[in-house]
């Protein structure tokens, strides 16, 4: 495993195992993406509701990196799912990003209308606007419902996973069904960085607690999307390929779970 490692999604798409997340990156988005490209990231995770697809697009163009080397994810927002605007919403995202296609398009939350949205995304994939289709914030029950109604399983489910939030039921279901997991807020929005068991492991490897958490997720075959607007942290977060946690250390991390979310609960949200 190294920073260029990719995993195969459906068909032939290859996804880099670490991405820069840009939720709440605001006016710093463009520079953060440029810093990430300099550090070796090739995978950026944005969403229409983050309001920064234009900034991501500007950074892509300014970087001069060939489109084929990049993996860009964006997401379909809830209002567009409810109103049946999947096609229009994707076209708007592509225009803002300045791209002809996205590598991964996700249903952002399991709101009413997600099945129809997914079926429309299957058509948009056939038309070449999307390389892979996935979902986000789907628990096992949502996935079971979706799988019974669509033609192809989602490539990816992007959910909150970090040391204190491990939805093992959903994780196991995704692993059994070969749905690749992506962890949003892998650092628990920064709240997991002072956990003493993690600091102890970090000390042993001369790494930071952020690096240990990201490494733990990768060794559990979970894609990581750490967010930072600081160059030194963006570099630090991808510098995780020169050490390996033992099985005992992975078990210690697994046992930190408290089912404590830092973000909304997919079964109870009101947006
Ligand atoms: P900042 O953007 O100011 O660097 P998560 O990805 O779990 O949501 O965590 C993101 C939060 O953690 C942000 O507040 C980010 O702050 C902070 N963060 C990201 N990387 C690191 C790091 N290596 N060390 C400390 N804090 C970090």
Describe this structure in words.
This protein is α/β, with parallel strands linked by helices and 271 residues long. It is 39% helix and 15% strand. It is built from eleven helices and ten strands. It has helices at residues 29-39, 53-63, 78-82, 86-97, 114-126, 140-147, 168-176, 196-205, 209-219, 231-238, 247-254, and strands at residues 6-8, 14-16, 20-21, 43-45, 71-76, 102-107, 130-136, 156-160, 180-184, 223-224. An eight-stranded parallel beta sheet has the order 3-4-5-6-7-8-9-10. Helix 1 (29-39) packs across helix 2 (53-63), helix 1 packs parallel to helix 10 (231-238) and helix 2 (53-63) packs across helix 4 (86-97). The longest helix has 13 residues, at 114-126. The chain is globular and about 50 Å long. The termini are far apart. The relative contact order is 0.14. It binds adenosine-2'-5'-diphosphate. Residues 21, 185-190, 193, 208, 210, 226-230, 233, 236-237 line the site of adenosine-2'-5'-diphosphate.
């Amino acid at each position: 495993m190294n920073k260029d490692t990719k995993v195969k999604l459906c068909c032939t798409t290859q996804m880099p195992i670490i991405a820069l997340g840009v939720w709440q990156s605001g006016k710093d988005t463009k520079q953060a993406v440029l810093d990430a490209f300099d550090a070796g990231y090739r995978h950026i995770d944005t969403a229409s509701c983050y309001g920064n697809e234009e900034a991501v697009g500007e950074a892509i163009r300014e970087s001069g990196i060939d489109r084929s080397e990049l993996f860009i994810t964006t997401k379909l927002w809830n209002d567009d799912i409810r109103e049946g605007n999947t096609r229009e919403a994707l076209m708007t995202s592509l225009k803002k990003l300045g791209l002809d296609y996205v590598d991964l398009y996700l249903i952002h939350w399991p709101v009413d209308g997600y099945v129809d949205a997914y079926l429309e995304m299957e058509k948009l994939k056939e038309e070449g606007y999307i390389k892979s289709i996935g979902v986000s914030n789907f628990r096992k029950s949502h996935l079971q419902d979706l799988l019974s109604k669509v033609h192809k399983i989602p490539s990816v489910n992007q959910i909150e996973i970090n040391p204190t939030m491990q939805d093992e039921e959903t994780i196991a279901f995704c692993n059994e069904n070969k749905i690749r997991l992506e962890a949003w807020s892998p650092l628990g929005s920064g709240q997991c960085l002072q956990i003493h068991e993690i600091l102890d492991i970090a000390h042993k490897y001369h790494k930071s607690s952020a690096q240990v958490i990201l490494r733990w997720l990768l060794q559990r075959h979970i894609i990581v999307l750490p967010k930072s607007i600081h160059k030194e942290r963006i570099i630090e977060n991808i510098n995780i390929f020169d050490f390996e946690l033992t099985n005992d250390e992975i078990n210690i991390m697994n046992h930190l779970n408290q089912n404590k979310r830092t973000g909304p609960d997919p079964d109870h949200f009101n947006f």
